[in-house]
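Q: I'm building a small set of examples for a reading group on sequence design. Run inverse folding on the following structure and report the sequence directly after it, with nothing in between.
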């Protein structure tokens, strides 16, 4: 039985429990009875604060349905957006051709040990394949490597800091005199001819003591197509350069270069005072212009545009098969906060020209090179450039 009120003899009202639903009263809780005027307000003593009016049940049910439908719609949009982003990443990243067996088969004990939290190291290789048949990318009709078929024309070591706030790109001259495993001493570009990506990677690892995480390869056909895909780049030639032999003459000023013109620009070395060393600077100058073009277009900050860029890259560039689709997209997306001022381009420390037999070769400066490799290995390039400001870094005045 309900307890009675001592004065009126009427059943006493139960206290309303806390924690009620926003939409319905708790089970067993009665609505307060209306007073003579039909209002529930009479159930509140005059000395108490009046409770807010409760919504009618029908309105509460409509409110609940609206909230549930709104939440469902938002959830569908989020899931659909994530699904579309995942599909875009998978679709475009899958178009990038993968190179099998791109890493050394030497035992781990014979390779540089990876340093945790020290960033990412990529070896970029440009092939001296001058035929009209693509050898890299999804359009490749010939293998990226056949013994003796082609040498690597360009080798660059790209280091990305662990937080992706800075990048260092070091050109290794193709005529650098180095030990090539199993072949004795030779020019660096011979390693690719003799043993393909795996031997090139092993040679660079042995030279620098830096563990290579990934490899990217492009031939000159791909280079030309990639330049055209971004609409060309603007390159400033600081002074007029006379043509020498087959080398093209360049007028001082800014040139908008399509793929064919840019290819002439980066391949030429005979008309340059520093020969191959100046050519590597031209290659870096082109990459800097290409990077600025991509950054200025907002590509790296837009998932959809980034997917399109990966699709373009996939048509002309091949990467190692350890670089998964997710890795590739995360790598590109991770560079969205990178600024041009935080990307340094340089040649490996130069130690002079020399002759080995009948070959003209490039020697590295042992001590400065060792200091640079140590800085890259431990992700301390910012400290290195503070201490070695006289390094061979790329300026704005590039012949």
């Amino acid at each position: 039985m309900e307890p009675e009120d001592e004065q009126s003899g009427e059943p006493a009202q139960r206290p309303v429990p806390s924690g009620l639903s926003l939409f319905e009263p708790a089970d067993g809780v009665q609505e307060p009875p209306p007073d003579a005027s039909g209002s529930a307000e009479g159930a509140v003593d005059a000395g108490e604060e009046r409770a807010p009016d409760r919504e009618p049940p029908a309105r509460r049910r409509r409110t609940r349905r609206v909230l549930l439908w709104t939440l469902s719609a938002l959830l569908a949009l989020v899931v659909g957006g994530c699904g579309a982003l995942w599909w875009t990443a998978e679709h475009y990243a899958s178009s990038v051709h993968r190179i099998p067996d791109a890493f050394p088969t030497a035992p781990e004990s014979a390779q540089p040990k990876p340093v945790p939290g020290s960033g990412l190291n990529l070896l970029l290789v440009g092939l001296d394949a001058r035929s009209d048949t693509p050898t890299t990318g999804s359009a490749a009709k010939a293998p990226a490597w056949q013994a003796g078929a082609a040498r690597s024309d360009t080798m660059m070591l790209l280091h990305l800091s662990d937080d992706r706030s800075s990048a260092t790109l070091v050109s290794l001259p193709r005529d650098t005199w180095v030990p090539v495993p199993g072949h004795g001493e030779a020019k660096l570009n011979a390693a690719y001819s003799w043993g393909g990506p795996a031997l090139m990677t092993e040679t660079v690892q042995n030279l620098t003591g830096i563990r290579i995480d990934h490899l990217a390869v492009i031939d000159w056909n791909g280079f030309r197509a990639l330049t055209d895909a971004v609409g060309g780049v603007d390159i400033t030639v600081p002074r007029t350069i006379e043509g020498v032999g087959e080398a093209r003459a360049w007028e001082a000023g800014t040139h908008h270069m399509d793929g064919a013109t840019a290819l002439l620009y980066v391949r030429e070395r005979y008309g340059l005072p520093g020969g191959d060393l100046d050519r590597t600077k031209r290659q870096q100058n082109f990459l800097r212009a290409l990077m600025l073009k991509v950054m200025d277009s907002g590509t790296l900050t837009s998932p959809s545009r980034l997917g399109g860029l990966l699709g373009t890259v996939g048509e002309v560039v091949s990467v190692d098969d350890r670089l998964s689709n997710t890795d590739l997209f995360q790598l590109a997306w991770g560079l969205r906060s990178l600024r041009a001022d935080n990307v340094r381009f340089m040649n490996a420390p130069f130690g002079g020209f020399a002759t080995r037999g009948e070959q003209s070769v490039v020697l590295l400066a042992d001590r400065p090179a060792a200091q640079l490799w140590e800085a890259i290995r431990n992700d301390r390039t910012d400290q290195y450039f503070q201490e070695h400001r006289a390094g061979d870094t790329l300026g704005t005045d590039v012949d």
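The longest helix spans residues 57-94.
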